[in-house]
Write a structure and sequence with these properties.
79 residues; alpha+beta; two-stranded antiparallel sheet; two-stranded antiparallel ribbon
Length: 79
């Protein structure tokens, strides 16, 4: 697992609206998480030519982010 900030995505602001309780909903598992427990994910992978732009980024929980890189079903669910 990578550590530290990803320089490709550290300056991209991803729009996500917090719920009533200030938690964010993960589009992968529908769980509620604090913003610090979410990670930026390229919808179209960077290695496949996906751009680091707002419309190609999702804010998803750490678990779903890890799954999105190894599980085709999760990857397809997020597209």
């Amino acid at each position: 697992m990578r550590t530290g900030r990803d320089k490709r995505t550290s300056n991209v602001k991803v729009t996500s609206i917090p719920s009533y309780h200030g938690l964010y909903q993960c589009p992968g598992c529908n769980g509620s998480f604090a913003q610090g427990d979410m990670e930026r994910h390229h919808v179209m992978p960077h290695v496949d030519g996906g751009l680091t732009v707002k419309w190609n980024m999702l804010l998803i929980c750490v678990r779903c982010h890890a799954l999105a890189h190894v599980d085709t079903n999760m990857r397809n669910r997020l597209m």
